Amino acid sequence: MATQKCFRVLVFPWLAHGHISPFLELARKLIEKGNFFIYFCSTPINLISIKKKLSGDDHQNYTKSIQLVEHNLPTLPQLPPHYHTTDGLPPNLNPTLRKAFEMSKLSFPNTLNTLKPDLLICDDLFQWPEIVASSHGVPVVRFQTCSVTAASFLAHIFTNPDVTYPFPAIYLHEYETDQIRRCVDAVFESGREESRNLLVVNTSKAIEEKYFYYYSLLRGNTKIMPVGPLIQQAPNGDEDMKVIEWLDKKDPCSTVFVSFGSEYFMQKEEVEEMAHGLELSNVNFIWVFRAPVGAEKVKLPLGFVERVGGRGIVMEGWAPQARILGHSSIGGFVSHCGWNSVLETINFGVPIIGMPMKFEQPMNARLLSELGVCVEIVGDETRRFGREEVGNVIREVVGGKIGDDLRRKVKELGAKIKEKQEEEMDDVLDELVQICNKKKRTVVHHHHHH
């Protein structure tokens, strides 16, 4: 790239880790490949963990080109500052957090006037940052952290509720429809006006090209460009060596990793079924277990830990997911199919055992099944899953012939993605530079008139 003026970009994700991570990776890519200075904007509680993430990789010198910017939410009685994040937030407070975020738009002009960015990259989940920025003459690019498939499915339900979605591979089970309805309501509640601004998505055409065109159509012929997969770099911490040493002693592809992301907390009954399923599978496992901040601990079944002995590890809270997925002993990932986890798993060539829990995860799981890289654990009308299904599917994938097929396909898919990746990213960077340059030119014009 020819030397260009340094552009100042304000980056503003939704307050969820699943959004912050890809936004942070996008910021790193901009710094690495172009001449950009990044203002990264989030709530103080989120900035603490973002700071940690950045200091973990100072060898790249990113910190010189990223400045963290506080975005303060109004103080609501039931939402103290440590709840200004979805991480560990009790699920019933989700709507309150969204409301507080919506209310915080009053302080956003202040941020724009202080920083005077050349560009705002904001989260496609909310429209107000885009509206405020546009009224202040700041160009906007929207960034979407979920798949095009899932987003087009939701947009379809919103626009054509009585028409079947045109791609039969993507459908819902009976027990998923209510929750998807709520998802659609949450995303489209503010009666979205489609804007003409570029939409970049954390995906690759190698994964879901056939869904791009329909999605663009549904979004008012918006220009949509893939920029992914943006995957968090694995930190080189030593604090997680125990689990890695444990994995070193296991056979290749012999172990299943179980994790449902940072925003899903299992009910008591689900914990029971999952535990018994792992026990029945007779497969080595690492199970990451989370509860909301301040919530009562959900207990594992009596004697479970003793019975599984040396073939299972239960980790509370956080696990080094990238280190684990990249380990040769891992033979499958029981995943909620959150999009970041999906991209990471494909990157490491690990077969996926799908257990979508909420949000847009069901559509991701169906897409992965269509691609031949995932087997879903499907329950019946009464519940999402039971121990028998869990045990059987894990056994078939880890160490079974099905697992070999999935692994071959997921490695092929990973290779296809890597082929396209550089080119897709460069196209987006060129586009961003053009948008910033346009702004610079219009600003210059104004000065002629004075």
UniProtKB/TrEMBL annotation:
<protein>
    <recommendedName>
        <fullName>Glycosyltransferase</fullName>
        <ecNumber>2.4.1.-</ecNumber>
    </recommendedName>
</protein>
<dbReference type="GO" id="GO:0016138">
    <property type="term" value="P:glycoside biosynthetic process"/>
</dbReference>
<keyword id="KW-0414">Isoprene biosynthesis</keyword>
<dbReference type="InterPro" id="IPR002213">
    <property type="entry name" value="UDP_glucos_trans"/>
</dbReference>
<comment type="pathway">
    <text>Secondary metabolite biosynthesis; terpenoid biosynthesis.</text>
</comment>
<dbReference type="Pfam" id="PF26168">
    <property type="entry name" value="Glyco_transf_N"/>
</dbReference>
<feature type="coiled-coil region">
    <location>
        <begin position="403"/>
        <end position="438"/>
    </location>
</feature>
<keyword id="KW-0175">Coiled coil</keyword>
<comment type="similarity">
    <text>Belongs to the UDP-glycosyltransferase family.</text>
</comment>
<feature type="domain" description="Glycosyltransferase N-terminal">
    <location>
        <begin position="9"/>
        <end position="231"/>
    </location>
</feature>
<dbReference type="GO" id="GO:0016114">
    <property type="term" value="P:terpenoid biosynthetic process"/>
</dbReference>
<keyword id="KW-0328">Glycosyltransferase</keyword>
<dbReference type="InterPro" id="IPR058980">
    <property type="entry name" value="Glyco_transf_N"/>
</dbReference>
<dbReference type="InterPro" id="IPR035595">
    <property type="entry name" value="UDP_glycos_trans_CS"/>
</dbReference>
<keyword id="KW-0808">Transferase</keyword>
<dbReference type="GO" id="GO:0008194">
    <property type="term" value="F:UDP-glycosyltransferase activity"/>
</dbReference>
<dbReference type="Pfam" id="PF00201">
    <property type="entry name" value="UDPGT"/>
</dbReference>
